[in-house]
Protein: LacI family transcriptional regulator
Amino acid sequence: MTSDVEGRFSIPILMGAEDAFGSDQTSVFLCDARGDAIREKHHLRALLSRRVDGLIVVGARPDTRLSLGELPVPVVYAYAPSDDPADLSSVTDNVGGGRLAIDHLIRCGRRRIAAASGRVVFHLVRPDTDATVNGGRRGRDGPPPCPNGAARRGPARSRLSR
Structure:
C-alpha cells in the first residue's frame, strides 16, 4: 500500500517484492491510497478480507507516518517510518549516505564541496543537510568540519545563478 502517487519509490519496492518471491505462485497487489486516510482504510480492509500474508506500506516522503496499529498480518513500513517504535520500519540513512559521498569526494582530492538537498519542508532534510556537510569527516583523520557559516541554506537557484 502506498501514497507515492508518482511511483518514485513504490514501483521499485513492488518490483523488489515480486523478485524476492521469485517464480513462486505469489501475487503482489499495489494499492494507491493517494495520501487519503479513508482510502487507505478501505484498501486495508479489502486486502485483509483477501487474506494477504503481509503488508508493505510505502510512504511518499521520509516523514514519520501514523501506524496502522495491531493487524493480523506482519507490516513493514518502507521509506516513511511508523510513529510506533514497535513497528518494523525500513528507512534510508541519509546522514550515512552523505558521509560516504563526502569521504569519496575528499579521497578524490576535492575540498570545496556543495550539498544540494530537498526542500526544507521535509522532516529529514534539515538535520541531514547540516550533519552531512558539517559531519562528513568528524571524528576521523582528514579535514575538519566546515567552520561556522560555511554550510549555507536557502534556495540553490539564487546562489547558483550568480
Remarks:
- The first strand starts at residue 55 and ends at 58.
- The helical segments are 10-21, 37-49, 94-107, 125-135, 156-160.
- The longest helix spans residues 94-107.
